[in-house]
Design a protein that fits this description.
The protein is mostly beta strands. The chain is built from one helix and nine strands, in the order αβββββββββ. Belongs to the small heat shock protein (HSP20) family.
């Protein structure tokens, strides 16, 4: 049998069961993520350990990306007596609002070692570009200056 000495962990576990348990009322739980820009794309990584790839849904509607995943509970049955149940199970959900500068039509998703990684390209029109400067000389002739 496993023993615990942290009384607050037990309180957290009970609160999780009340708010996200298997009762008739439950709400989606947020999933931890990292997001960063790498060159001409944004990368978003979600921690989803123990979630099967077929239990993950990705939807984009207008500029809202929704990630939904379900971690199924540990099987129980005859002869199985749960000693410790700290790993959350159920539905996990997260929504990201994508800016107008991101290409939601070309999002790539990969899942490896419990991490869902999304790559969201920046639209061509939103990438930094150099602007040519034109100047008029004293004879009022227009010439281009390399910037």
């Amino acid at each position: 049998m496993l023993m615990r000495t942290d009384p607050f962990r037990e309180l957290d576990r009970v609160a999780q069961q009340v708010f996200n348990g298997s009762g008739t009322w439950s709400r989606p739980t947020a999933m931890p993520m990292d997001a960063y820009r790498a060159g001409d794309e944004y990368v978003v990584a979600f921690d989803l350990p123990g979630v099967s790839p077929d239990a993950i849904e990705l939807d984009v509607e207008r500029n809202v990306l929704t990630v939904k995943a379900e971690r199924r509970p540990t099987p129980t049955g005859d002869g199985v007596e749960m000693q410790v149940a700290e790993r959350p199970s159920g539905v996990f959900s997260r929504q990201l609002f994508l800016g107008d500068t991101l290409d939601s039509e070309r999002i790539e998703a990969g899942y490896d070692a419990g991490v869902l990684t999304l790559r969201i390209p920046v639209l061509e029109k939103a990438k930094p570009r150099r602007i040519a400067i034109t100047a008029t000389d004293e004879k009022h002739e227009v010439r281009q200056i390399d910037a």
